[in-house]
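Hey team,

Sharing the Peroxidase run so nobody has to redo it. Sequence (974 residues) first:
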Amino acid sequence: MAETGQQEPQYERYEGGSPEAERLVFEQLAAELMKVQVKNRRAGGGGIARTFHAKAPVAVENARLRFHDDLPAALRAGFAQPGAEYPATVRLSNASGIRQGDGSPDLRGAAVRVRVSEEESHDLLATSYPVSHARNAREFVAFAKAMAGARSPVRKAFGLFVKLPLAVGLGTANRMRRNVRAATRHTVDSLANETFWSRGAILWGEAGPVRFLLRPAPGTPAAPSADRRDPDLLHREFAHRLARTDVSYDLCVQRYVDERRTPVEDASVEWRDGVSPAIAVARLTIPSQDLDSAETRATARRVEDLAFNPWYTTDEFRPLGNINRARKAAYQAASAHRLGLRFVTEEPLRNRVLGRPVEAAFAILNRYVPWHRLPLQLSLLNLVFLRKVLRRLNLIDTEPREAPPKAQPVPAPIPERLRGERSYDGTYNDLSEPRMGAVGAAFGRNLKPEYRPDLFDTPNPVTVSRQLLYRESFVPASSLNVLAAAWIQFQVHDWVNHRRHKPGERSVEVPLPPGSGPWHNTPGGPGENVMRFAENEGIEVPGRPPILFGNNASHWWDGSEVYGEDEQTARFLREADGRAELRLEDGHLPGGSNGHIPLTGFNESWWMGLSAMHTLFAREHNAVCAALRAEYPTMSEERIYQTARLVVSALIAKIHTVEWTPAILATEAIDIALKTNWQGPPKNWLNQLGLWLLEAHSLTGIPKTLPDHHTAPYSLTEDFVTVYRMHPLVPDDFELREHHFGQRLETVGFMDIQGGAAETQIRKTGLANTLYSFGIAHPGAITLHNYPRALQRFERDGEIIDLSVVDLVRTRRRGVPRYNDFREGLHKQRIRSFEELTENAETLARLKDVYRSVDEIDTVVGLFGENPPTGFGFSDTAFRIFILMASRRLQSDRFLNVDYRPEVYTPLGIDWVEKGGMDSVILRHCPELAALLPRGASAFAPWRTVRPTSDGNTDGNVNGVVNGNVNGGVNDHG
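Structure output:
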């Protein structure tokens, strides 16, 4: 007999041969059932209803289930004990997914939740026919799809006799139709006289599999004939009956005999009473009451909001069989959809029909002409279809999932406050899957990982760094300013953070190539023949290679670099006495104890550029708080704080989408595409018509759409982390100037403004002069031979590391495919020779010297070496990850679409985001910079340079300005 909590192989067989293979099937079937709900809503009107059993004539919370005193010893398990009595919620329903009159031919259903304790309950679901029309979940969903939205006799006939045979075959369709006809032929005059059978088997402790049924208790009177035209006849009859007396059902079980006569996997076979007699074990009683009082009507509304699921039970009573295993995912998806926690984005038929040939045509065209060399409208349309392909093929869920399904308690209610505010750790962004994208959630993948421990040190990453990455002379990115470099680091710290082991606890060792000299791994430490740095902390999953890692930041675009990743940090950063503002000292971040690095949400890898961004957006938060307090005087401080978090986070997302990205990918097509992501396409008839025909979802900006995770639960990915390795943007030295007269203040190296020195320097220079100095200076180009020297030997957490080597090693050890496989996985043609990557003779010679073949080229090296499209600041290969993930970060986040609305953000908050941008943030806090910002370009383009004058009198004014504003550091923050 079964040991409690374990699967019995003689009872259950997994589709696809394994629980995981079956889980993937069930997830897809659950998504199909959500589409059925949409079709049923169209046919029945109103909102999204249950996929089946949409209308409940009876719903009560005060029923009781009492086990019989003479309960057989073999059936005593868990909560099933002699004389045990429990409260129960009961919902009796019509089976159709379309709300229709009670007199319509239909099956009926019963859902009973037995409440044993606060922690334990058991959902018992049954239907008024002994067997299911479907053997398994695939047949069940095929029938649901065939009958979706079928209200009229003609549409029902079309579904049964045309759509169903096409889906399951003629023989199976005939069997299913016979079962359905037999089940619905029965005339129902009272739900009190109906018997309800479980759909499939459940485990009953040591007794093994059983099917259960609820049948009217002996002596239940029959109902008089009713007016079949009365749409609520079953409710009226039951209410009339309950007004006089209790209504009771016997809970009975049929025990498993053998796989032929009482199969577990085939739900379409009846467990006949002659083979397995029904044994009464308990009685369910609905007490006499007025079903039409205000109190019971309110009760019925609460019951309608419940999500019943046979897996809300314990291991001793878990469901068994294919249909039951599918029900967990299916019911969770359908109930979340019904309750507005999960969403369906429908693709119009015209898009599906016209899109396939257009997608195929672009796939052929792209073999000969890159998208960026096409005419503007064609290139935009090409990008639309490339993104569709990437969404379909390049979203891989890596999070360890439950397979096979497990019993669980009824989920706790969603905290009401988190419906309208972001959590601190990223939980409850997706209300139907609270842990999705939260702190600790695993990084996903865009490409199947390649774990090759034998190639971790081939070729030697130190050699690769010295030969191909080392900055021999600074190569500027002349279309950008250094604020763009600071911005992307500011963003990456919000998005991704691999947790590291403590130094010395668990390290990676990289052997130095012969003749390269010793490396000092710690300040003042001995010279060694290896580089050593802390290893990442992984997530161990049996049977998987050790390349799964959790994100120590939340995956959402939630401003966590400003606010922190947990409530303790967030509250610590606020003003005293619970005020909504963030703590500032004379307009700057408060100092910390760790070498004077300031207090903020994320302060690792700290330098002056990061300090400027954090200071600017801490001030912006406080400005939003002040505006909200003035506009809404009765708003609490906590509500002001949470609303300001939403506003600042959304403003950051908008700036990155419509300003930073078009600045670094400076082409008209990208400018249009990114603005379309936020605000919709240009309002001309050709764009509108093209999108209406081929991709209607893009007719509005993403903030006006519904959340959509496409083919995998939302997460950021290891491949995304790889393409955002943009360290060449950082210069090795900086000239600091004052903005009034353009005079040079001083020239500093990166190490002079890094770590604790950054705060001293920014307070000395002042925020306005810092922004100006970075605004007129160019960052480095993202290319080979341009890695910052300062980052190739610097101290972090007590270690001296070469970050370029770390970048290479991390990418290899995390299983990110090498460059050629990376290209191919993103639907680009492989390169066949080194000459296809670069035409630079010196680089070409070094590539051939370092790598044995093009297939060995490191991903980072290939991305830096690739010749980008005109105007692009990084490669087209990296761009493919970008166009997939850039829109995904908006599309998946409910606070940037379905809950990006005045009711959540306040009207002022929405207006703040819609009218705001990087220019407005800078000018709000440093208005004196107004004349210096670029005209007709974003704040990440080079600013106007103030020409210094040699006039002696002017120099005196400069000294006054410097002494008053720069050294004081308090008059530049507005």
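Residues 1-9, 951-974 have pLDDT under 50 and may be disordered.

Ping me if you want the raw files.
A.
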